[in-house]
Specification:
This protein is of the alpha/beta class. Helix content is about 40%, strand content about 15%. α5 runs parallel beside α8. The radius of gyration is 17 Å and the shape is globular.
Length: about 240
């Protein structure tokens, strides 16, 4: 059936071991046949050593350890390259801090027969956010409006990372030529997939507060993202 196939769930991490210990079993409750790839930047909290031990008894678990902290954007691209190289049919990405609750994974997987990219969306009917101050909500909505306006992406939520993507479409995108190295990789990825002919669908979810640790988002990253989106609009090649 169109939409079926091998699924890789990807988690990009830095000091998220406390979340991973709870999150990975929750992922397998929702998608028991999926493989889980953790891309970790040699976290000082012992993430890699702990995962290496677990992998001895868990064949569904994968680890890509990178030498030092290189950032979320490049980790995301590394996870996508892995999915292409290993011949998966679908790659489903979510944040490692429970802000993308695993209970929504079946909703994303259910739409696979109808499109190439399924977006877990905060900004369609039924979606939303928990615990954000008004300032952050306004900034997020403005950023997504700016992205849609400049890049013409037919989606309400262009900046979120909760997505399921057809790997054969990713293979058409040159992942080595991305401008983004930080959070703008999410907008650039949708832009490049859309230009490659991907059919996009959104399904609602409610973004939750992280359970452990602290957010790594900064104002500097946000300004860099706005500049990259403008550059993509002016020079899309």
């Amino acid at each position: 059936m169109r939409g079926a196939g091998r699924v890789l769930v990807t988690l990009c991490t830095y000091n998220e071991r406390a979340n991973l210990e709870l999150l990975i079993p929750e992922i397998w409750k929702q998608a028991p046949d999926a493989h889980v790839l953790v891309v970790d930047d040699s976290s000082p909290d012992g993430t890699c050593a702990w995962l290496t031990g677990w992998m001895q008894s868990e064949p569904r678990l994968r680890l890509l350890q990178r030498p030092g902290k290189q950032g979320l954007g490049t980790a995301t691209l590394a996870s996508l390259k892995y999915a292409v190289a290993e011949g998966y049919d679908w790659v489903l990405n979510l944040d490692a801090d429970f802000s993308h609750p695993p209970r929504y994974i079946p909703d994303l997987l259910a739409l696979r027969p109808h499109c190439d990219v399924v977006i877990g969306s905060r900004y369609v009917r039924g979606g939303g956010v928990e615990g954000w101050p008004l300032r952050r909500q306004l900034m997020s909505r403005a950023s997504n409006w700016y992205t849609r306006l400049l890049l013409g992406i037919p989606a309400r939520d262009c900046s979120g990372a909760f997505r399921c993507m057809r790997v054969s479409l990713l293979a058409r995108v040159d992942l080595t030529q991305f401008l983004s190295r930080g959070y703008a990789v999410q907008e650039e990825l949708l832009f490049r997939l859309h230009r490659a002919g991907a059919r996009l669908r959104e399904t609602p979810f409610v973004y939750a507060q992280r359970r452990h640790g602290s957010s790594k988002i900064s104002l500097k990253e946000g300004l860099i993202a706005l500049r990259i989106i403008l550059r993509l609009a002016l020079f899309p090649a």
